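Notes continue from the previous slide.

Worked example: a multi-chain complex. Inputs as given:
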Amino acid sequence: MADTLTPVLTANWGDERAWKLANYERRDGYQGLRRALTMEPAEVVALVKDSGLRGRGGAGFPTGMKWSFIPQDNPKPKYLVVNADESEPGTCKDIPLMMASPHTLVEGVIISAYAINCHTAFIYVRGEVLHVVRRVQQAVREAYSAGYAGKNILGSGYDLDIVVHAGAGAYICGEETALLDSLEGRRGQPRLRPPFPAVAGLYASPTVINNVESISSVPAIVRGGAEWFSSMGTEKSKGMTIYSLSGHVRNTGQFEAPLGITLRQLLELAGGMREGHRLKFWTPGGSSTPILTPEHLDVPLDYEGVAGVRSMLGTKALQCFDETTSVVRAVLRWTEFYKHESCGKCTPCREGTWWLVQILSRLEAGRGEPGDIEKLLDLCENILGRSFCALGDGATSPISSAIQHFRDEFEAGMHTPAWELFPYEASRRFAPAPATAGAGA
Amino acid sequence: MTRTHTNGHAPAGVHHGDPNAHRPEPIDVEETSTLIDEGVREELRAIVARYPQPRSALLPMLHLVQSVEGRVTAAGIEACAEILQISAADVSGVATFYTMYKRRPVGRYHVGVCTTSLCAIMGGDELFAALQDHLGVGNDETTEDGVFTLEHIECNAACDLAPVMTVNWEFFDSQTPDSAVDVLERLRSGEEVRATRGARVCTWKQAERVLAGFPDGRADEGPTSAPESRLGLRIAAERGWTAPPVPGRDEPSGDRNPQAQTQAAGAQGHAEDASLKQAESKESGVSADEARPASGPAGGQTGTSTATEEGSARRGEGENGTTKGGEA
């Protein structure tokens, strides 16, 4: 039985200048790469398969299996693309990882690229995180200088180029096929699947797209072995992962634990909810995962456990809201996000998110009309499963789950503004400041 | 002065009515002067050379155009189209899809306030209202002196440090209306301002140049992480929790025990954070303001020992960073 917290990816986040190559090497950095280069690429794929690593970007697809789908007899070049476009509301693990220890990612990129016989890899970082872009750019330059990237890596005969690519502000580019279109210099709009990226991805060539945390887990797996990795976690959800606690929690922050820890355990470590308040609702993995309530505090936070209560583990972004929070307000703001980020390609999402915002806005203002709740549910039904990609599906999750758990508050939106039921200043992190409190009123 | 967010007695962040009501100023298409010269074209072509296929360079090329022109200009679009051998309409379609590309001039400092659900609820709405009020501009508008552009942004992946502000895409974590106004005032007065998790704030154009893939030598500035980022690490060290031991280690560096290192690192993190009074600082706004002076060099880094250590590390590293940037 592994310990409650198991820092591996976060182990060096307290080190001074952890982002520098020399400091990373001092902690066994690039030893995973050295070992991988003594193995056949197929052996590396098998190792990652055996470890049970599943995608940390939301969907939880087995990483090694994804790699094995790359048709090695295809004469076209193979590509590895890292999805570092972290922007799912509530999700805040990849950005601190790349800022503190970009070499963990870069080493993972080199090993993973070697495993799938790829000679050009891309790290697609969202553009709105300037300092993370700097640190990743520098880490890649350092890796080249040290012979870990470029031609004939560590004398192995293996060549790899790594390109750091900054995005330009579009949540949709976190969707893997939209990311590929964006990386090809187009508007970031999702593609029809099949063909899947493993067969025809970037430049219509076989492509693996993985999340930052998934790729960053690879060096530790190669160093420790599949058994070591799978000694953490639960039966079908192996290994350690980063949980991000935010919201009305006494001490917010990042916790690296074996998959399967519960929110009750994490909240205990975080000192509970802020003094004098109690948990009202929370997301297990970002805003696209249906919200949960205190009755779900003991649900194991692994892929199966959260699916068992009809939500999703997602990105393990645990946004915790206390009893001062208006559910209608929170859901409206998430819906505004989806409306803003909808790429416009398909009608249900483009038009539907617009309608949802209009209805939720009047419910927030206490000006809801009879039948609004039914209309919201009807709209959700017409978006879910009928959109081109998961953005539309995700947009419906907070709404339908919130109505399921907190229908009263939506009913109240027929006559009372949300800010009268739940004075907004009570939800703030900072105390009301008389000098500025009136500014927006 | 536009007040898109003002709505009777509704709180900050509430806006109703015609969603089409806010129409931005039209783009000035008469303005054809450009700073794109042969040198810039050379750099645009250098971006193309990084990619297996030329068109992949378009996003960084547009970042570079912004770094030169202060926005995406018609001339910039033409230059990209010509170099990539695609139509100006194709480039234009891309330039209008992504929110970071601006067709209207952006100020010296782009100020973003996260108003997605969690940050909005934690105080982002009041933060944004306070900055609107302070600067006298609405969303996506620039002050008349061209110093600030204000924009409410979507989730910027720092939710454990809400409410979040960005200046030229550097993190200013855990802000209050007062601390945010203070940051802007110091920038306006020409003072050098450091991000709470990042480097000295550069201009928006300089930031765009980095995003285009031209390093500025500031990667070594700033801390490794925020205290919040290493909270779990600290608790693990306190309680002696580690990842399972790695079996049969035989690498060249096998003499080192990663568990011992983890503990040591955690302990170091613990020592750094020892003076933190996070619980207190989050419970009461008064002590939060005291403990988290976003005005200080350490900004959102609470606790004097952390601030001093990391501050001095930064000072030492600034020079290295510059040298490295020169080499690159």
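Summary box: Chain B has three domains: 38-95, 109-211, 227-245+255-327. Residues 109-211 of chain B form a domain with the Glutaredoxin fold (CATH 3.40.30.10).
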